[in-house]
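Async update (no meeting this week)

Hi team, since we skipped the sync, here's where things stand on the single-chain job. The sequence we agreed to prioritize is pasted below, unchanged from the tracker. I ran it this morning and attached the output directly underneath so nobody has to dig for it. Comments welcome in thread, and please keep replies under the output.
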Amino acid sequence: MIVVNTETVPGREIGEVLGLVQGNTIRAKHLGRDLAAGLKNLVGGELKGYTELLTEARRQATERMLAQAQQLGADAVVNVRFTTSAVSQGAAELYAYGTAVRLLS
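Output:
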């Protein structure tokens, strides 16, 4: 499956637009990561625990979006975007969305 953040797939023509596809996940902070992040804030530097948490959340949201695209019979998902929002204190949603399309041969 081709996944791009542009409106078209370079070198290919879109034959049919199948519609919006989406995937999301909601993740809560982990106490161990929170303690490590608090210490890291004192000395500076990357919060690796949170980086790993967001990387995993992006991967899972993308997989869910692509599964929905496959159910529609898509060859590609164009105009892919990611967004986040706070759900509650200590928990955030990562949302991936795009447009499922069929490409011409």
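Quick observations from my side:
Helices lie at 31-43, 48-71.
The chain has two helices and four strands.
Reply here if anything looks off.
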